[in-house]
Amino acid sequence: MALSQFSERLGLTLEPFESVGRVSQRSQAPSDDAPIRLDCSIMTGPSPSLIERPVSWVALAGFMGTGKSRIGWELSRALALHFVDTDKLIARVAGRPVPELFAQEGEARFRAFEREVVRRVVRLDYAVVSLGGGAFVAPENRQTLLARGPVVVLWASPETILKRTQHTDRPLLKTEQPLERIRGLMAEREGAYREGTIHVSSDGRASSEVVDEIVGKLWHWQQDEAEDGHEHTPGITQLQGGHEAD
Ligand SMILES: Nc1ncnc2c1ncn2[C@@H]1O[C@H](COP(=O)(O)OP(=O)(O)OP(=O)(O)O)[C@@H](O)[C@H]1O
Ligand SMILES: O=C(O)C1=C[C@@H](O)[C@@H](O)[C@H](O)C1
Ligand SMILES: [Mg+2]
Fold it and tell me: Where does Mg(2+) bind (predicted)?
């Protein structure tokens, strides 16, 4: 699939969120780089503006199998935010699972689609975004994501990563010696992952525990940002008093 066709379909896929956001939350159409608010009235539960949360947008990065998709989903429930998984979004827009895209169109094309998706998901609001394992490695993506909001990096040991990924289809780990491959790729990527805002280990821990730690660290981050005079929570009404972070 050509990049231009992918882009057009990506726009159409996200349009329902974006157009509803304009009607319900904005008095005028957003400019190209303004954040787009998702309409949270389509969510179940209390109104999003009544929920006290540390952020209205957060991304999860890290190596394959560190738990971005699973933890991201659980985090989105905990914060009452929409959930976007970039691999799933790419697969949906391209009409094929990621491994098939890799096999048929090559990694370079997949990375081009991924860049396009990153450029779009930073315009969403009220969303938890789980990235593909390589998305945060590209400097352009890192810059775009970090300019938007906090990026939580999940970490796990190569052995845990192998255990979690060995019965699934990760094209980059299809090799005779996957543990060596994981160690090598991890060494190449570690510097990029270290540039994340918040770091949390998912190794040997229940996902709920990981989510709790992320939420606690997001509160600390938000407090630090507020003290530094940065405003990172557009549209959020905090009805309660200060949060007692752990
Ligand atoms: N804390 C955890 N404890 C046990 N299993 C976990 C934990 N987190 C994730 N898993 C499991 O590990 C597997 C890989 O997790 P997941 O798909 O969320 O990884 P990912 O970081 O999104 O990987 P990718 O970069 O390839 O998309 C899944 O089966 C998931 O249920
Ligand atoms: O770490 C990576 O480069 C990848 C991770 C997965 O999430 C997919 O995005 C794809 O398999 C590539
Ligand atoms: Mg994933």
Answer: 69
CB within 6 Å of ligand 2 — which residues? 64, 87, 98, 132-134, 170-172
Would you state the structure tokens that stand for residue 21, as one six-digit string? 């956001």
State yes or no: 168 annotated in a binding site: no
Alpha-helical (H) ranges within 46-97 are 68-79, 86-94
Instruction: Confirm whether 191 is domain-assigned.
Output: yes
Q: What is the pLDDT of residues 77-94, one digit of tens each?
A: 999 888 999 999 999 999
The pTM (predicted TM-score) of the whole model is 0.85
**The residue to which tokens 């315009």 are assigned:** 123
- Answer left, alpha or beta for residue 62, where phi above 0 means left and psi between -120 and 50 means alpha: left
Spatial distance between the Cα atoms of 137 and 226, rounded to a whole number of angstroms: 28
Q: What atom of ligand 1 comes closest to residue 203's alpha carbon?
A: 1
